[in-house]
# Entry
Amino acid sequence: MNIQENISLKLYNTFGIDKKAKFFTAVESIEELKDALAFAKKENIPAIILGGGSNILLTKDQEALIIKIDLKGIRVLEENEDSVIVEVGAGEVWHDWVQFAIHKNWAGLENLSLIPGTVGASPMQNIGAYGVEIQDIFHSLKALNRDSLSLEIFTPEQCQFGYRESVFKHKLKGQYVICSVTFKLSKKPVFHTEYGAIKETLAEMKVSEMSIRAISDAVVKIRQSKLPDPTKIGNAGSFFKNPTIDFQLFEEIKKSYPQVPGYPQDEGIKVPAGWLIEQAGWKGFKKGPIGVHEKQALVLVNYGGGDGKEIAHLASNIQKSVKDKFGIQLMPEVNFL
Ligand code: EPU
# Structure
């Protein structure tokens, strides 16, 4: 195990925030992970687990051991003519895994193309896009219990998935390290093209025969057209979750804004936070190196040299103005560290 001291985390978070870690290590095996956890215990400092760093906002230097999960490998566990069950190491890059599956003609992940981050982080917040969530193709996961240091298997029920939610963000927060995720993919694809601009994009691309490759290409095209590339402009994707509001409030907003978008749910109506933020006048806002993306108001950006605290401050100003204008409290999707 190689432990580095006082290193910059700039390359390890997609916002590109330059904060330091007191200690840092990358682990490639469960044994290394256990050693790293033991080291943090001995030093009496917190151990913080990092995947792709694509859903965090660093607001300060970390008096901690940052453990980057580099557990790799893709292993077929079961296969028949209809489906395949595949275990994937937590440290695999999400989009590389999606491309691997598409190449094998295993269906189910194509709508989730180009989501930044690693496989291990994907169940944490039940990642989703274009009408599909990871829970739709999730089989199980293996996680290390940080107390007992034993590996435990979690079924979908035990993960308690919700919209951008799982048990690992709530009841079991900080208690487990996800080491691998097992997916059940189909060899007989069901195409999900209803959501957003997928159909129009496929038509633009002049796709004559539907395939998971075509859907993946369309999703990549849509994402590239409105989401900033984190290797060029620092960001962590959607900064807030889309709020679900009650029917009464929705009807009230509709009186002044007849065009308000809304997606009915069991508990109310889901309204795109990006729309609310845009209406509150923030789209394209810039202050020094930080701002609100000009094509998607849900994405806060760091053009270079921005500070995490300033981004947190901007986020709280946005929350306040959306609350004042619409009476809706936005909740961050990104984790603050
Ligand atoms: N909209 C605006 N202005 C904006 C942005 C959006 O008016 O600046 C409105 C538009 O009316 C649009 C609607 O919001 O029709 C929905 O926008 P979009 O399709 O871009 O999706 P989203 O709800 O903003 C969610 C996810 C994204 C995911 C897309 C596509 C959340 C928090 N975000 O965004 O996920 O890629 O749907 O499925 O649920 C992420 O989590 O990091 C992420 C990028």
Q: What stands out?
A: The first strand starts at residue 4 and ends at 8. The chain has a mean pLDDT of 97.
